[in-house]
Design brief:
Chain lengths: 800, 218
């Protein structure tokens, strides 16, 4: 029993160990259980009739031909949902959204009617048989056009509503104008600035495109009055609350189960019309109803990301010290404001836009606009618009460096918030918890030999015969994750805490149930590691269960890199409650005072006496058969953690590209990513998360785009056009780290999954622009496809 | 999805014969495989239909076409068409077609059209619309040429090469081949048959097609 400490520690596979992912055994054997794997007796299938037009009045819907088909059970339209008052539903952003188009359609692929049939194929055929006659209306795709006085009215249902969920509406297509920072001090900084720069940029509409599309199986039991729904949701408890509010079924009779999820990336946070329709259909028909989107539906109608038209300005001294920042954004939210942001933040955490820099005066304003496009906006591996914010500030710092002729690494070092300034309150009011940017930057510059890279670039530029242009991208970002303190953050009025319940069984194994839900993050692996370290129970015998609202404590779910910062803390604190009780039991068993005990890896021992101890396993048994007098039996605890602050992970990313002068083809020669996410719970999983995030960042920067033509036809909504990188396109990633723990998190951990996405995207743009900067280019909009880059080269006279 | 077309096709028939086909909207419609005029509503308004088969699915597009003007002196026809299928996908087209006599006694058809396609086909086929239009128009021109040729009086002079020489970006080898083989046919044109599309590329044609012979909506 007295194995060496180190050995005992390793046996636990706790915090800091690269424990193999517990989930992989089932995933790599095809033994996962996704929504589409759920089959229930008597289950029917739903498919959706969608609008082929972006803006049109519905003149007539003829269901007859569809209803006449054998195997078709029902065809429902908005008119059928009206008596139930379910043809519209509230969005998380304080707007309403049509469940099925009510009198008119406002974006292409909008849900118009549903068909319920015996199988998926009959349903699809019946969708074709539903006749819909439309009267075309003028379409508005560009948010600037949408704000013109004579622009088409997209939302007739809001006629006369001059007050929205986030303040005054000044135009029929205007949703909100949201501001942060101090305008007068920012304006003053600009008024007296010796140097100013301004740059417009467009962060285009993209889609996270998770491999598994959205779907659900709704099963209403008319006898018990209970509704069970399997759903691909990143926030099952939120779905339960929404479903209860919409349907009137008591929340205690609604059970939402998120089974295995094939990637979420924010696409699976919201409540989609398809879910509501499947639930209604199940209630109406008294049978289980399955609905699973196809790829085109997923890309066309569910939560997209970005679509921010941004304009940034920096004021600075001649030696590059930034004195002011101003940002204006026109945000294209599509036809309904269905952003999944914390309620009070219609632009999410966009005001992290001052980045890693000590900027004394700053102001930003975001104007949300309706257009004839699908609703959504905050998806895609991003903590509520942090991606857009980081893109803007990092691009602006490059632009300033270029104007002043200062190296982009140097100008960053001059403006960083210094280590001794933490905790640091930004001009926008965020309190950055910890950071050490200078050390991290230097580590990266040394690792890649930055000076040598710049020398090589200079030599290539001097050589007219060089077939390529070389560019070096550098980004030094700070994220704000772990939403969030409930004094600031809520969804539908529910504070954004998260929760954990741990039960230690008599024989010393344990189960933890969580309010979060893994979608590839490896919670079952990493959460167990936290408990292992906190309680001295081997992670191998700790089960982690998530996603079933009937068993898990209430939590706000997994998105915005909040699982480790919020739920991870809940685990630690629930474990510490158990730890405290275990200490009492150990003292009782060893017949000493609690104060005479010390904790050592997996046991309490009498201080200074290695031979007198009780392991956690001993204590677990005792908790159930001989607890000390006055102490209730059992060994379990639940903790709801309301974080005191966000966490602020950061990173330094450097990228080297070579652009073919003739074709515009860009080769990512090198990508070096240093991340600091505080305490590292499982380094292997962190590396995996970073590889995944970098690859998605690469996808966004280099190829992804949801574009629309003037008539609102979505272009490229299948994988034939929409770029999803495979191993063939993906460059090699080099990762590195520093550790600056969060001072307010019980474990010092900060969250990591989104950093590589947020940080890498501007790094690619920075590299592309760097390759062209000697030609006077200050910015190029994404995606940096070969064709677009070639056009730029042609404009510059580089390519033929 | 909007495409502007501006093309020229040689027609193996004299100007008068070509003109009489151009102004006979019923005849003109059948130059597009699968299309026909189903009803004449007034002097210058018609209803038309296009039947399209894509794999196992058959779609029926119906629409209105309105002749905006016939200028016999300038040999110019202007018309507008708009149509929709049952699901609500739409297409419209504004066409100006002009005939010019060629030196060898044949005719050149000049067509300018603004085509707008909405719905499924605009989503999937957007980037191919231009090239597919080339193929489609080539088929149309070949059929048109044949019809005009059949109407023409027995030639007392040899009419020049009937091969098609589209002015636009070549590279549509398939189009040219089809065009040439169609044009070589001496017999009168076959009756309209449904457009049997066997791939995505043809699906785009379907919509374009509706634009050509669509209907005008309210």
């Amino acid at each position: 029993m007295n194995a060496p400490l180190k050995e005992r520690e390793q046996a636990l596979m706790g915090i800091g160990e690269s424990r193999l992912r517990k989930e992989d055994a089932r995933f790599i054997q095809g033994k996962g259980n996704y929504v589409d794997d759920v089959k229930m007796p008597g289950m029917l299938h739903m498919d959706i009739v969608r609008s082929p037009l972006a803006h049109a009045r519905i003149k007539r819907i003829n269901k007859e031909a569809a209803l006449a088909m054998p195997g078709v059970h029902a065809v429902l339209t908005a008119d059928d949902l009206k008596p139930l008052k379910l043809h519209w539903m509230p969005t998380l952003a304080g707007d309403v959204q049509a469940v099925l188009a009510d009198e008119k359609v406002v974006f292409q692929m909008q849900e118009v009617a549903i068909v319920i049939a015996d199988d998926r194929y009959i349903a699809a055929d019946a969708v074709e048989a539903v006749e819909v006659e439309y009267e075309e209306l003028p379409v508005v795709i560009n948010p600037f056009d949408a704000l013109k006085p004579d622009a088409p009215v997209i939302r007739e249902d809001l006629a006369g509503k001059t007050e929205g969920a986030h303040g005054a509406r000044t135009h029929h297509n205007h949703i909100f104008t949201w501001e942060a920072g101090d305008k007068s001090s920012a304006d003053a900084a600009f008024a007296n600035a010796p140097v100013t720069v301004k740059q417009d940029m467009f962060y285009p509409r993209v889609h996270p495109c998770p491999l598994e599309t959205c779907g659900c199986v709704a099963s209403f039991d008319p006898v018990r009055g209970e509704l069970t729904t399997y759903i691909t949701s990143q926030a099952p408890h939120v779905v339960r609350t929404v479903v209860s509010m919409l349907s009137g079924i008591p929340e205690s009779k609604v059970r939402i189960i998120s089974p295995d999820i094939g990637g979420g990336f924010g696409n699976k946070v919201g409540v989609y019309p398809g879910y509501v329709c499947a639930i209604v259909a199940s209630i109406v028909l008294g049978r289980p109803v399955k609905w699973v989107e196809d790829r085109i539906e997923n890309l066309s109608s569910t939560a997209f990301a970005r679509d921010y038209h941004m304009s940034g300005e920096l004021a600075a001294t001649p030696d590059g010290k930034i004195t002011g920042l101003r940002v204006e954004v026109v945000a294209d939210h599509g036809a309904f404001d269905a952003c999944a942001d914390p309620t009070k933040f219609p632009a999410g955490m966009f005001h992290i836009v001052s980045g890693s820099y000590d900027i004394p005066a700053a102001h930003c304003s975001v104007k949300g606009v309706y257009t004839n496009k699908a609703p959504g906006g905050v998806a895609y591996r991003c903590s509520f618009r942090v991606t857009e914010a980081v893109y803007l500030i990092e691009r602006m710092v490059d632009v300033l460096a270029q104007k002043l002729g200062i190296d982009k690494a140097e100008i960053r070092a001059r403006n960083f918030i210094r280590k001794d300034q933490f905790p640091y309150t930004s001009a926008f009011g965020f309190e950055y918890d910890s950071g050490d940017y200078h050390t991290a930057l230097q580590k990266v510059l040394d690792a890649v030999d930055y000076k040598a890279l710049r020398a090589e670039q200079a030599a290539k530029r001097a050589d007219p015969n060089s077939p390529t242009l070389m560019g070096i991208g550098l980004v030094t970002f700070t994220e704000v994750v772990g939403a969030g303190p409930s004094k600031m953050c809520d969804i539908l009025g529910v504070g954004m805490f998260d929760s954990c319940e741990i039960r230690v069984h008599p024989t010393g194994s344990a189960i933890a149930r969580m309010g979060t839900i893994t979608q590839g993050q490896g919670h079952q692996t990493t959460y167990a590691q936290i408990i292992a370290t906190e309680l001295g129970i081997p992670s191998e015998v700790i089960q982690v269960e998530e996603g079933d609202t009937s068993t898990a404590p209430y939590g706000l779910g997994t998105y915005g890199s909040r699982s480790t910062p919020v739920a991870g803390a809940a685990i630690a604190l629930a474990a510490r409650k158990i730890h405290a009780k275990a200490r009492k039991i150990a003292a009782h068993l060893l017949e000493v005072a609690e104060g005479d005990l010390e904790w050592e890896v997996d046991r309490f021992k009498v201080r200074g006496d290695d031979s007198r101890f009780k392991t956690m396993k001993d204590i677990s048994w005792a908790a159930y058969n001989q607890p000390p007098e006055g102490l209730e039996p059992g060994l379990e605890a639940v903790h709801y953690y309301d974080p005191p602050n966000f966490t602020y992970p950061f990173g330094i990313y450097l990228c080297v590209v070579d652009i073919d002068k003739a074709t515009g083809e860009t080769k990512i020669r090198r990508f070096y990513a240093l991340d600091d996410c505080g305490t590292r719970i499982n380094p292997m999983i962190i590396d995996g998360q970073i590889h995944g995030g970098l690859t998605e960042g690469f996808a966004v920067a280099m190829g992804q785009l949801l574009s629309f033509d003037e008539q609102g036809n979505i272009q490229g909504n299948s994988l034939m056009d929409y770029f999803v990188p495979t191993a063939v396109e993906t460059p090699k990633w080099e990762t590195d780290y520093t550790v600056t723990p969060s001072p307010h998190h019980p474990l010092g951990a900060k969250g990591v999954a989104e950093s590589p996405h947020v940080g890498s995207i501007p790094t690619f743009t920075s590299a592309i622009v760097d390759a062209l900067s000697h030609l006077g280019v200050t910015h190029v909009d994404m995606p940096h496809t070969a064709y677009r880059t070639w056009k730029e080269l042609k404009r510059l006279g580089v390519a033929q | 999805m909007q495409v502007t077309l501006d093309k020229q096709y040689p027609i193996a028939a004299p100007l008068d014969a070509a003109w009489s086909v151009l102004t006979d909207i019923r005849e003109l419609a059948t130059c597009m495989p699968g299309a026909q005029i189903t009803e004449q509503v007034s002097d210058n308004e018609y209803k038309g239909a296009v039947k399209v088969k894509v794999g196992p699915a058959t779609a029926q597009f119906t629409g209105d076409i309105e002749v905006l003007g016939i200028d016999a002196d300038a040999r110019t026809l202007r018309m507008i068409g708009k149509g929709a299928d049952k699901s609500g996908s739409t297409a419209s087209m504004e066409l100006t077609a002009t005939l010019v006599a060629a030196e060898d006694g044949s005719t050149t058809l000049q067509g300018k059209a603004d085509v707008i396609v909405n719905g499924k086909f605009a989503q999937f086929g957007g980037r191919m619309l231009n090239s597919v239009s080339d193929v489609l128009l080539a088929q149309f021109a070949a059929n048109y040429s044949n019809k005009a040729q059949a109407l023409a009086p027995a030639p007392d002079t040899e009419i020049g090469e009937t091969g098609m020489q589209a002015d636009t970006s070549a590279g549509e080898a398939a189009a040219q081949a089809q065009q040439a083989s169609a044009a070589r046919r001496a017999a009168p044109p076959p009756p309209p048959k449904e457009l049997n599309a066997f791939g995505l590329i043809w699906a785009v044609i379907r919509n374009f097609f509706v634009g050509l012979f669509g209907r005008r909506q309210g």
